[in-house]
């Protein structure tokens, strides 16, 4: 782990320090950190010589630029019409029961956050969800439990590797 | 009135003949005005939903004097029920890149951007590979054109072209006042052509086969083929390329499950057509040929009799309430009022007449909202409430 | 010149310049189109949709503020379609708004209320959204109260903070129904980069942004017989107050204002203009000392240019955004704080009063002065130097509450000791005024001659240009100032913090050759201050400026150093400018702050 201010400086070096480079930099921080902390936004504002309030105002416009602490894996379940028709609620319930968390919450160990999102563009394979940037479609409660089990396994292995 | 017009499949977009290099170099040897005329005579209209004539868009931008101009491919495909653009970008990206380059040549732009919605992040690596290969070829033939991907971050409204520019400029994706239009002042206040992914894919067809081949498809005022994203209560959801001008009845014959109660044409911002109107409804742009003609970005959502239209409308309004940028009064407050209003009627807190007040409100939203989002909320609201009023009340 | 465009508005044919908006064309043709998000000081937003008009042949209505006229446009501003839509828009705004008007500070001066009244919105058909919202009220700033339940999201405050002030303390955050006007991470105004200038208040159409008022506290003090309540009035108050009380912009009401303050029951009515003259003595001397320190002693610790420090909004701005440049600020307190420190020392002693029993009130065109008075360092008298700061608007409210028929008041005079002032002090209220006043005194101190401008009017520093520059060449100085012979004193004047930023960036880049800069936080200087009457506009500010310069021209004494009470205070109390006592009571230091 390197400090977020280094990450921000690197991103600014890579993308540039103009206003029109703001989104790629915000995205870069979110990719690494999963969310934009107060500190990150102040650092970005400093690096780009922008008012911090503008960084905050811009970031909060975009659903994928979270400004609250998020888990390592952010689950976004599509709630738009076709997914709703095709059993989104059952899928959501299965996730909630398995991970013991509500929509908008993060597991205490910081592994998963659960959110709902608007149309993912997989209406023909509804219901659909994203886990970070990975798409899963044609979900059923059983399928989603398998998917999450795989993530949990990966997480455990990852942790033991780190140790 | 019944339209006697059969459903006709077409197969241009996903047919990959791997000849983009040839198509590009061949067309770069033609004059810009030749290319514009080709496009104008094809009568191609924008496939994102608004249906502005593509050739005219290029022509207007070409006519503006400026040393810096931009070509932008709008891949912020966020309309509920639409998923065709993703498929184009993953199956035939070179068609889109080629058309962007030709557009750059025609209008005098050296830079192109693909605004890719955040939800399609996973497309980026492959698309970047294609872009590298494409740019390498451009260098080889001494054609100065670069393309970059700009990622969105989860905001439906950024599909609105001026909101998209704002977003690319690092700001909140709030639609601008118009005029000025993008042809004069778009991204970075420079003349900009912004086309939907599918529109660019069709221009490839036109530049490859000539305008006539495209023009011969479809019907008057609605020429060519179009990709349809079919979802909902259908045994065969997916993406289909069909000629424009088909009747909804024919469409439902092909894609319905035998119990289709209504079809939502054009996504949440489109219209709901009830069964009794299938025959008189054609899919295309406004024209004299047909009774009711519905333009569409290609989203076709089918609902069978098990579905509650109240729930459908509730879902759409929830979507708009969240995805409105929030800057203009009619859209920001209007969406909240519509959503709260139908719930209040359903719960009996407001009487059924309140629906009429809400219908009048949608009329106001249609004529006063700053951009297409707020203006189009009326479409689904009024078509659902007028056709399924009893489902709203009981 | 481009060809004019012919249009018709409600059947009236008019010709307009290309680029003219429908709104401007209509106003010129005598047709009023209601607006809300539109403000003459700001860029066009086009987001409230109140000004919608019908252009014949178009299905959708057009926002008059944002739509340029086109050839042969036939515009209807009062068609059925327009009226119905406009009424809907107002109803929608009201449904999201806490319409508890009788309990609102802005009751009677609210643009939304006016619209509702004009369109006779008598029913509440739409669902009230207020109970579903998590609206908050931020009252923690000593200057500004922000009540989200009154906000109509016109973004005038956001544009003001960005375009006029270059601060961006306020921003638009979130989207959809959650969209709101807020600060960085939704912190309290007191905890962010806010300069407390109050321009957001002046530009807010509703009660969402108002000053924190101290009216009741001041009434209580006046009623308490054991307290001796002194009041001071800033230069710009006397040319603004009339607007709240029935006079046209640009009316001078100095004598009536003094009479009203006496009727309100203040024990002594004195003048901030007196300490404005005192500021010139101190600041002018400081400038000369700095010039000597740099030009003769080459002391690297001493910084030029020196910047004025009368405007507390500007001070807080520098503390937040240019913390490395605090040493460029004059150490002089603002005239308000000099007055406060003297009221509980010099005045108390002269009048034989217990300073603990003195309540020191100021009337200011400014909300930043409220913050300034609350700064912990402003206790040099041994007590809080200024107890309560009222804005021009609050004073007007008190005058109305007291049942004073302002129009009929006979002129009265300020009380002695700290009530005498000069034309130099009066012009403190206009941008460039402090510079002009300082130059009148400094030039004469150095050369023994009057500043070489006709009638002492240093016109290059006057006007409404955002940044103005002037050069004054010093020739044949008195012996002790010989080192200044031939020096061209380079001065710059800026008003509105967005212009201050330009000057400070020039200073930071090392490209500026300025010796002395005057900066006022608000557009037009104090006359356009955040505590002045609402509405404000470039025209109104121009009229107020004219009034200020007329007041100056009519004063018998127009140079600070000739004010007899100034001569007296140095003789009796302070000794000389920059003396030890002056340092203790009249000078201060500054605090670096965060930039978000």
General description of the model:
The complex is a heterotrimer of chains A (163), B (394) and C (596). Chain A has 163 residues and is α+β, with helices and mostly antiparallel strands. Chain A is built from seven helices and four strands, in the order ααααβααβββα. In chain A, 45% of the residues are buried. The model of chain A has no long low-confidence stretch (mean pLDDT 95). With 394 residues, chain B is an alpha/beta fold. Chain B folds into three domains: 196 residues, Rossmann fold (3-Layer(aba) Sandwich), CATH 3.40.50; 87 residues, Roll (Ubiquitin-like (UB roll)); 85 residues, NADH-ubiquinone oxidoreductase 51kDa subunit, iron-sulphur binding domain (de novo design (two linked rop proteins)). Helix content of chain B is 44%, strand content 16%. Chain B contains 15 helices and 13 strands. Chain B is globular, with a radius of gyration of 21 Å. Chain C is an alpha/beta fold and 596 residues long. The longest helix of chain C is centred in the middle third of the chain and has 24 residues. In chain C, 56% of the residues are buried. Chains A and B meet through α2 and α5 of A and β7, β13 and α11 of B.
Strand content of chain A: 5-15%
Estimate the helix proportion of chain A, in percent: 40-55%
Please mark out the parts of chain A with pLDDT under 50 across 5 or more consecutive residues, or reply none.
Answer: none
Instruction: Report the biggest beta sheet of chain A as strand number plus sense, adding barrel if it closes.
Output: 4 strands, mixed
CATH superfamily of the largest domain in chain C: Fe-only Hydrogenase (Larger Subunit), Chain L, domain 3
Radius of gyration of chain C: 25 Å
Which CATH class of the largest domain in chain C applies here? Alpha Beta
End-to-end separation of chain A in angstroms reads 14 Å
Largest sheet of chain C: 5 strands, mixed
Note the overall shape of chain C. Answer: globular
